Structure formats: C-alpha cells, structure tokens
C-alpha cells in the first residue's frame, strides 16, 4: 500500500502530498521558488534545502549530495532538492535565500533604430460598404464579400465563415476585411484599417522581450519583457533544459506551456500599455536560439544534447497560429468578428 506523504515548504508554508517526485520537482509543481540550474541532475548544487522537521523516511543521501554538502552539511539536515524524496510520513523543508530563484533586474530595451519597413506588410486591410441583400440580389454572404473584394481572394477559413452572417448584419454591412496576402483572415465591423499590428518576440534563455509593432510604419508601439523565470526553474542553461524536456513528453509540454504563458502575458501587458486590443494583432514573429525554438513549438530538443548546432530539421518557417503550441486559443485574440487566424513566423 502506498504511504501517505506530505511535504511542507517554508517559508511559503505550502504543503504538497506526493512520494513519487523529488523535492525539487514538488517545489516546481507548486510554483515554489527553488533553483535548479542543472535541471535536477545533481551537478550544480544550487538546490540546497534544509530538512527542519521530519516524521517519516527520506531516501539515503546520494553520492552527488555527499560531494556538494559533505558529511557535516548532511548531519545538519541539508540535502539537495533534486536528489531527495520523502518516502513516507511528513516532512518540513526550509528553502534558504541563496537557493531561491531571485528576481533579476533585466533590460528590455535594445537598440531602437528607425528602420523603414523593407516590404509592404503581408497583412492588409480594406474597408467595405457591402450592398444589402434584396429580392434582385440574393447572393450568399460569402459571395457578396468576395465580389466586393473584386479580386482573386481566397475563400475564408471555416471559422471565419461561421461568424460571417452575424458579423455583416450586426455591422450593417459596413466592415473591414483583413487579408494575409490574398486570404481573408478577418472580417470585423466598421473601419479599422488603421489598426494593423504585429508582435515581435525575442525568446532568450534568460529573458523574453516582446514588441508590439505597427505593421504599417514598422514602429514599436509598446514593449514588455520578463525573465524566462519559469524555464529557469527547470535549468539555468539550455543544456539543463534539454535534459529536463527530454525526460518525458509531459516535461516538454510543461516547458512549452511556460513560454507560451509568458508570451501571452507580455502581449497582454503591451496591449494594456498602448490601449490596443489584442484582436488587432495579425502577425507574430519569434527569434531565439534553436533550443528555445524547439521548446516554443513543442518539438523535442533532445538531439541538441550531442549536436549543439545541428537543428532537428526545423528551419525558418511560417506557421498558422494553431501549430505554434499549446491550446490554439491560448494565443490572444478571437474578439468580435475577428477570427482566430493569424500567422506566426519563426526565424
Ligand atoms: S544539483 Fe539539484 S538542481 Fe542542480
């Protein structure tokens, strides 16, 4: 029969019940700050914790713990979080300040040169007054729209069509159509031709920087940045994160979700700062090292453990939003009349 185990982390005072994970994994799962620079391999020695109360059994200290903590440290109750499991009973663990992932001061401002757009944006908008249906004009909504565009526009994807009748009538046939090249990607009420924005994201292994950019002028409208702290908890350097992500599909998914969540919250911040609705963002571009790309796309970076510069077959590319990770709807947008279709580029 499985033993009932509880672990309380101090100074947070959070208690978790689990005997199958290490203390580092438990802390990560409970969003408790505990360093794990080497990804839990016992190499860095940064995840030092102290067992302050125990009414049960822990696993024996490992060789790696003996190397980092020596016998005196172990006798005083110190252990490495990534090497220690509570096998049975209750245990209270104290995380000393030096073992916490502290907030770093980071700069989110780079060289902001005025660079004129090199090419017209792939997304364009056109404002249309559509003819209302009449006895002598019974064209379906989709045809009415395509006729007004008066060119070889590609048929909108199904999720756009599903909302089209309602959007056109609510807008009294006065709408703005956004197109990615020839493809209709959005139909919304009124004239919103000036609202054309994109997001540029630099995913670093220690920080993520997001610029909200006007697709027309190329100017940055707002910036937001954050540490890549959730991922840092799973390994300071990319090799440690590769090790963690390669352990199981769930680990990979977790790292992907963390970066997607960070990006979404940065988009939200940039939109709030500028007063621009996330629904007006039509394109996203990401830059980052190969491992960060893999994690963002939910592709295993395992091969980079032995071949650091060789990519797993993923080249510069362009992805519909739904292929960029996580729940498709996690990417911001999807407001009234603005279908959740947007291009995502990785370079
Ligand atoms: S030694 Fe535990 S995370 Fe590095």
Offer a quick outline of the entry.
With 347 residues, the chain is of the alpha+beta class. The protein has helices at 23-29, 63-75, 141-149, 158-170, 229-232, 238-246, 249-274, 290-297, and strands at residues 5-10, 14-16, 48-58, 78-80, 86-94, 123-129, 174-180, 183-189, 197-203, 207-214, 220-227, 281-288, 317-320, 343-346.
What order do the helices and strands come in, and which of them pair?
Elements: E1 5-10, E2 14-16, H1 23-29, E3 48-58, H2 63-75, E4 78-80, E5 86-94, E6 123-129, H3 141-149, H4 158-170, E7 174-180, E8 183-189, E9 197-203, E10 207-214, E11 220-227, H5 229-232, H6 238-246, H7 249-274, E12 281-288, H8 290-297, E13 317-320, E14 343-346
Parallel strand pairs: 1-5, 9-12, 12-14
Antiparallel strand pairs: 1-2, 3-4, 3-5, 6-7, 7-8, 9-10, 10-11, 13-14
Helix pairs in contact: 6-7
Bound molecules: FE2/S2 (inorganic) cluster.
Residues 24, 36-38, 40, 42-47, 80-82 line the site of FE2/S2 (inorganic) cluster (FES).
What does it look like?
The chain has helices at residues 23-29, 63-75, 141-149, 158-170, 229-232, 238-246, 249-274, 290-297, and strands at 5-10, 14-16, 48-58, 78-80, 86-94, 123-129, 174-180, 183-189, 197-203, 207-214, 220-227, 281-288, 317-320, 343-346. Helix 6 (238-246) packs across helix 7. The model is unreliable at 322-341 (pLDDT under 50). The chain contains 8 helices and 14 strands. Strand 7 and strand 8 form a beta hairpin. The chain folds into 3 domains: 5-99, Roll (Ubiquitin-like (UB roll)); 123-189, Ubiquitin-like (UB roll) (Roll); 197-346, 2-Layer Sandwich (Nucleotidyltransferase, domain 5). The chain is α+β, with helices and mostly antiparallel strands. FE2/S2 (inorganic) cluster binds at residues 24, 36-38, 40, 42-47, 80-82.
């Amino acid at each position: 029969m499985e033993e009932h185990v509880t672990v309380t982390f101090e100074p947070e005072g959070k208690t978790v019940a689990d005997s199958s994970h290490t203390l580092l994994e438990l802390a990560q799962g409970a969003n408790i700050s505990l360093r794990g620079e080497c990804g839990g391999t016992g190499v860095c020695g940064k995840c030092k914790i102290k067992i302050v109360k125990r009414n049960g059994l822990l696993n024996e200290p490992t060789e790696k713990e003996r190397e980092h903590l020596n016998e005196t440290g172990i006798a005083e109750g110190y252990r490495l979080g990534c090497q220690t499991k509570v096998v049975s009973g209750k245990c209270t663990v104290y995380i000393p300040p030096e073992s916490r992932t502290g907030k770093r001061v980071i700069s989110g401002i780079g060289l902001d040169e005025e660079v004129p757009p090199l090419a017209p944006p792939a997304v364009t908008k056109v404002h249309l007054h559509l003819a209302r249906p009449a006895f002598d004009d019974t064209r379906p909504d989709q045809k009415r729209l395509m006729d007004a565009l008066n060119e070889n526009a590609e048929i909108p994807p199904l999720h756009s069509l599903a909302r089209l009748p309602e959007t056109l009538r609510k807008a009294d046939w006065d709408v703005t159509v956004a197109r990615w090249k020839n493809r209709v990607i959005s139909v919304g009420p009124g004239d919103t031709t000036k609202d054309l924005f994109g997001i540029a994201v630099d995913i670093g292994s220690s920080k993520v920087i997001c610029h909200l950019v006007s697709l027309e002028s190329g100017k940055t409208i707002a910036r937001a940045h954050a540490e890549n702290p959730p991922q840092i908890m799973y390994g300071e350097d990319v090799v440690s994160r590769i090790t963690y992500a390669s352990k199981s599909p769930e680990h990979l998914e977790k790292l992907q979700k963390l970066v997607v969540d960070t990006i979404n919250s940065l988009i939200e911040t940039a939109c709030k700062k500028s007063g621009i609705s996330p629904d007006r963002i039509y394109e996203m571009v990401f830059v980052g090292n190969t491992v960060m790309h893999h994690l963002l796309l939910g592709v295993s970076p395992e091969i980079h453990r032995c071949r650091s510069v060789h990519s797993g077959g993923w080249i510069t590319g362009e992805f519909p939003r739904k292929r960029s990770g996580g729940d498709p709807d996690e990417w911001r947008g999807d407001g009234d009349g603005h279908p959740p279709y947007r291009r995502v580029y990785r370079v």
